[in-house]
Design goal:
With 260 residues, the protein is of the alpha/beta class. The chain has a single domain, classed as Rossmann fold (3-Layer(aba) Sandwich), CATH 3.40.50.150. It is 43% helix and 20% strand. The chain contains twelve helices and seven strands. The protein has helices at residues 3-16, 19-22, 25-31, 42-55, 70-77, 89-101, 139-149, 166-174, 181-185, 190-196, 224-238, 242-245; strands at residues 60-64, 81-86, 108-112, 125-131, 150-161, 200-208, 250-258. Helix 7 links the parallel strand 4 (125-131) and strand 5 (150-161). The longest helix has 15 residues, at 224-238. It starts with a helix and ends with a strand.
């Protein structure tokens, strides 16, 4: 992974969060247009929250690519001790501001750090959260680092988009300004799951959001909740079939038994 590629990622993330962009409404809407799709992610969010509460309370957890700190702060309020890292300095600044505002700075710490080569010692974290991060990274380096810093009895829970649905892929090609060139070319695929097995002895996968995305156009109407519920029920059936599940928008997977 070249330094230029990392710098491109830093500049893109900092631009999206800059004061200058926030003052340009049209450009801000253009560069955050994909956020509308997250209106339908409640099933995955519920799955993640249930896992956090069952496995991470009273533990030391790493938020690996912590974004603006929302997940980290939410977990601290549930009794989790969280360390967050991100490569973008403006993101870490926002994390610290949010933690201070919410009164949880004593149990949440944030650092600007390269996720592919962290400064943490071996076997340091009880668990790791990795949400929407791996497609920004060299997965070989990332999986190796995750296995190194995770305790032997710990787990990593990841949430990532998938590369197989032709409609999603077309949207990505039509909106190159929403992501770096590296990110666009490294959406997770089956080869990444073959690779991760070299670093973790157990990989569990659950697929989310196929027909559910048809509810997005209704997100600001009174019809949204019943329509979303209808398509969620369809997804619960269709995504149980091996031939269809890889067409899902996202996959949540749990990694355990790190190979040291």
């Amino acid at each position: 992974m070249s330094g230029d590629r990392k710098q491109e990622e830093i500049e893109l993330q900092n631009k999206i969060r800059s004061k200058k962009l926030s003052e340009d409404c049209a450009e801000f809407r253009r560069l955050t247009a994909n956020r509308k799709f997250y209106s339908i992610t409640r099933k995955g969010n519920n799955f993640l929250n249930d896992y956090f509460l069952k496995n991470y309370v009273d533990k030391k957890i790493l938020d690996y690519g912590c974004g603006d700190g929302d997940t980290a702060v939410s977990l601290v309020k549930k009794g989790v001790e969280v360390v967050g890292i991100d490569i973008a300095d403006i993101r870490i600044k926002k994390c610290k501001e949010l933690a201070k505002k919410e009164g949880v700075s004593n149990r949440a710490s944030f650092f600007v750090m390269d996720a592919e080569k962290t400064t943490f010692p071996d076997n340091y974290f009880d668990g790791i959260i990795c949400s929407g991060v791996l497609h920004h990274l060299d997965t070989k380096k990332a999986f190796g680092e995750l296995a190194r810093i995770l305790k032997s009895e710990g787990s990593v829970i990841c949430n990532e988009p998938l590369a197989y649905n032709p409609v999603f892929q077309l949207y990505r090609k039509m909106t190159p300004y929403l992501r770096s060139e590296w990110e666009a070319e490294h959406i997770l695929s089956k080869k990444d799951f073959r690779l991760v097995e070299k670093y973790f002895g157990k990989v569990e996968k659950k697929f989310f959001y196929l027909f559910s995305l048809l509810a997005v156009p209704f997100r600001n109407t009174f019809l949204f909740k019943p329509i979303l519920l209808f398509f969620e029920k369809i997804d619960s059936v269709t995504l149980s079939f091996p031939g269809l599940r890889w067409w899902a928008w996202q996959v949540i997977f749990i990694l355990s038994n790190p190979k040291k």
